[in-house]
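Lab notes, practical 5.
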Amino acid sequence: MIKQGCDALQSKSRLSKDKSSSKTLCKVKQPKKTTVKKRAWDAFSKFIRTRDCLKTTGTLERGICITCHQEFAFRELQAGHFIPGRHNANLFSEKGVHAQCSACNKWGLGKPLEYRRAIVSLYGEGYDEVLEKESKEIKKYSVQDLTEICEKYKMKLKELLNESISKNNN
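Output from the prediction step:
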């Protein structure tokens, strides 16, 4: 990707001249896949925690852990996976990821039995098996895929927040 008009801080080795217009061009470095994946995860995680806070307490400040059913501040909640390991196939699964306290998610290793019961309660008998089957699929994300996921969840978060504001105004 080439961008016109370089910053003064760009190194000379990365500069080139456009022969047709004599304008200075510089190469724009593409972000690493791991960087884009982290951004996508951050957007998805924030969406999940916000969704579950609104669903469980009706506020943006507090939410209830899916496994221990205790109330926590938003910043104390994590986006915990039903299928542990954060495999690509279920990394961004809205029905396989829910707000979970760090005690359950990290130290309790996700509390699989309690999580399974919650999944069945939320989505019906057998949905836990659907998520297990989904986790075995091979999914590879490109930088473009991850960028789109990031934008999708930023937009979904914005929509959630707008809905919340409009509910509170009525």
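Observations recorded by the TA: Helices lie at 33-56, 88-91, 102-107, 112-123, 127-135, 143-169. The chain has a mean pLDDT of 87.
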